[in-house]
Design a protein that fits this description.
Protein name: Sigma-54-dependent Fis family transcriptional regulator
Pfam family, one: GAF
Bound molecules: adenosine-5'-triphosphate
CATH superfamily of the largest domain: GAF domain
CATH topology of the largest domain: Beta-Lactamase
Oligomer: single chain
Number of strands: 21
Structural class: alpha/beta
Number of domains: 4
GO molecular function, one term: sequence-specific DNA binding
Strand content: 5-15%
CATH class of the largest domain: Alpha Beta
Keywords: ATP-binding, DNA-binding, Nucleotide-binding, Transcription, Transcription regulation
Organism: Zoogloea dura
Helix content: 40-55%
């Protein structure tokens, strides 16, 4: 273990000793160096770097311009932090540096005297401080080690850099990718112990800003075991879609939840916390600043706050089947990609799995491809209307053009106009200075998909009609008429004709939109559910894994009502696959989300769905009988009996959660939750 000498001078002396051991005698000075510095020296030596090489060099002006362009987002979020950081260290013979993920210095701020010294060793914008260019140094080594480091004086591999002391901390995005690195460099005699803490904290602020801006249109869940940490730099951040899909997590969230980053895509909100997402959303809408207590899957207590523009919902039992709330479904679609399918595969033909009504719709759509006929797609929420619209776009001659979607139900009425038509700078209060190009214009040469067209305010219906007639759009605040060439596809879950009869939708617009009317069947009406399930299983499980549903589950699926249609089925399959153990290939009832499990239980007598007490009693004869007897005699509380049975079953199954859940006749999720509660 390294001995940290008290003074800068003593440290400099011990480093000289370390260098002569390493470079002179070829020995590893493990007791004299931090392990990350030693590993870096080894990497440099293996790369053939010469420690006596001159450390200077000219900046690459073109390279840095390109790097700044590539890293625009990083720079915009880091700039204010850099400036603030520099304020903290001003007049201390130091500089602060932002470098990209390849070690290229993008920006620096510093005291004039130190900047000119730093320039002599090329520590300035336009030079790369990757380890293989500059040897061991805080920027390059933090990137290589993926962690914060101090590199002091002669710890620098190149002798010419030994006058420096540097502290750097990497910056990662919500997917854990390296975005860049933040560094404070000074003269080694001005070494400050707190520099490392400062760069760590500052890079954390930048990460937080990147995270929040990336997911500004999604749900952001901030949580921590300590309520006072929520809202502070210590909080954990999770990005979630309204359907409960996990879109990103910061390092703190992964640590608090005991997850690896690669687990994220296999998890769903409902598998991590006990409070249904709907409850959090409702709470956030009613009182955005309030904290709510939630428990993790192992019973850990957290305090959480949800931010985001979620559509209203009234606390359904689980986020998975929230799809039955049509508003919710409509909202989430605008915010998340519709499907994980590569666009080139998503054609009309790809949607065909044998249902006659769907096939008729596909045939009709195929026949009008390339003709200038607007389509109106009607169908229940989650039936695949947007998917159909995308497939239609991808199958026709405009496939290379843009597909632009706007959900009229998901944004406030007052914003639809500016979103759709665009505006010039300063057109209205709150408008962006530079103005914005509207969706109609964005769709030029491609397809404009207007979802929930029935929710378009009457006043805008007239403007939309004019665009369709004149094929020109006039952004707000301008007199300019811009020609547009778009194919229009609209969708609604309402019967638009009835809306017309009620006076809520203009008749002339209705006929203008309704060149071809496609009615998509709801899932329960489809004759190809089994084939669709196979297809979704293949897509979700991936090419290397074969997963099937059991007979019982298939039977129950075929009878189930599927109020959330394909969206709900998709979510159920996603969760079930995530709940499978690595060696399991068949989805059984206990792999289903709790609420589906229970509902399916009600429609399928052969499926185990007895009330918890009875099922458990069947599953664990001996202790259960005692417990049942105790209950009958009024000697125990139900919860105690349940706890007792769970403990015994777990014991009998050697702690294996899957087997215990199976024996108890409850899902693994439920078992986790119950364990958390005890
Ligand atoms: N044929 C299909 N194959 C695979 N997944 C599908 C299919 N059709 C729909 N889905 C999936 O179901 C979900 C809902 O589809 P989509 O958004 O197209 O429905 P919608 O009818 O537009 O819903 P809403 O009215 O709520 O906006 C999406 O996640 C989509 O990926």
């Amino acid at each position: 273990m390294m001995q940290v000498p008290f003074s800068v001078e003593a440290r400099a002396v011990s480093l000289q000793e370390a260098r002569s051991l390493y470079f002179g005698r070829g020995e590893l000075p493990e007791a004299l160096l931090d392990q990350n510095v030693l590993r870096s020296w080894e990497r440099c030596r293996q790369a053939g770097l010469d420690p006596t090489r001159l450390a200077g060099g000219e900046p690459d002006v073109r390279g840095v311009t390109e790097a700044r362009e590539r890293n625009r987002t990083l720079i915009s979020h880091a700039q204010p932090v850099l400036e603030h950081l520099f304020e903290q260290i001003r007049n201390s013979h130091s500089m602060v540096i932002l470098a990209d993920a390849r070690g290229m210095v993008l920006q620096s701020y510093g005291d004039a005297d130190f900047l000119s010294r730093a320039e002599q060793v090329a520590l300035r914008p336009g030079t790369s401080w990757h380890e293989f260019e500059r040897g061991t140094n805080a920027i390059g080594t933090a990137l290589a080690e993926r962690g914060a480091v101090n590199v002091f004086g002669s710890e620098h591999f190149f002798e010419g850099n030994a006058f420096l002391t540097c502290s750097a901390s990497p910056i990662q995005d919500a997917q854990g990718r390296l975005m860049g690195v933040l560094d404070i460099s000074s003269d080694y005699r001005a070494f400050q112990r707190h520099s490392l803490g400062l760069v760590k904290m500052s890079s954390r602020i930048i990460e937080k800003r990147l995270f929040e801006s990336e997911f500004a249109h999604q749900g952001l869940l901030s949580f921590h075991a300590r309520p006072d940490h929520v809202g502070s730099l210590c909080e954990a951040l999770l990005a979630i879609s309204q359907d409960g899909d996990l879109l990103g997590a910061d390092q703190t969230a992964l640590e608090l939840l005991g997850l690896r980053r690669e687990d994220l895509s296999r998890r769903h909100y409902s598998m991590l916390f006990d409070v249904p997402l709907g409850t959090l959303i409702d709470r956030a809408r009613r009182d955005p600043s309030s904290l709510i207590a939630i428990s993790g899957r192992n019973g850990e207590r957290f305090y959480a706050r949800l931010r985001g523009n979620f559509a209203p919902m009234s606390a359904p039992p689980s986020a998975i089947v929230d799809a039955r709330g049509e508003r919710l479904a409509a909202r989430s679609r605008q915010e998340a990609p519709t499907a994980a399918l590569p666009t080139d595969r998503l054609t009309l033909q790809f949607l065909s799995t044998g249902d006659e009504r769907l096939q008729a719709a596909i045939d009709k759509g195929t026949r009008i491809l390339g003709r200038d006929i607007p389509i109106l797609i009607q169908g229940e929420s989650g039936a695949g209307k947007e998917m159909f619209a995308k497939a239609f776009h991808n199958s026709g001659p405009r496939a290379q053009g843009p597909f632009v979607a706007l959900n009229c139900a998901a944004i406030p009425e007052t914003l639809i106009e500016s979103e759709l038509f665009g505006y010039s700078g300063g057109a209205f209060t709150g408008a962006r200075k530079e103005g914005a190009v509207g969706k109609i214009q964005q769709a030029h040469g491609g397809t404009l998909f207007l979802d929930e067209i029935g929710d378009m305010p009457l006043s805008l219906q007239a403007r939309l009609l004019r665009v369709l007639q004149e094929r020109c759009v006039t952004p707000l605040g301008t007199n300019k008429s811009i020609p547009v060439d778009i194919t229009l596809v609209c969708a609604t879950h309402r019967r638009l004709k009835e809306e017309v009869a009620r006076g809520g939708f203009r008749e002339d617009l209705y006929y203008r939109l309704n060149g071809l009317c496609i009615n998509l069947p709801s899932l329960r009406e489809r004759s190809d559910i089994d084939r669709l399930i196979d297809k979704l299983l293949r897509e979700e499980a991936g090419p290397d894994r074969q997963v099937e549903v059991s007979h019982k589950v298939m039977e129950a699926f075929l009878k189930y009502r599927w109020p959330g249609n394909i969206r709900q089925l998709n979510n159920v399959i996603k969760v079930a696959i995530a709940l499978l153990d690595d060696d399991e290939t068949i989805i059984e009832t206990w792999h289903l989300p709790d609420d589906i499990f229970e509902e399916i239980g009600q429609i399928e007598p052969s499926v185990s769905h007895a009330p918890v007490g009875r099922t458990m009693a069947d599953a664990v004869p001996q202790p259960a009988t005692q417990a049942a007897a105790a209950a009958a005699a009024g000697m125990g509380r139900l919860e105690e009996i349940e706890r007792d049975m769970i403990n015994r079953t777990l014991e009998a199954e050697n702690g294996n959660i899957s087997s215990a859940a199976r024996r108890l006749g409850i899902s693994r999720n439920t078992l986790y939750r119950k364990l958390g509660r005890f």
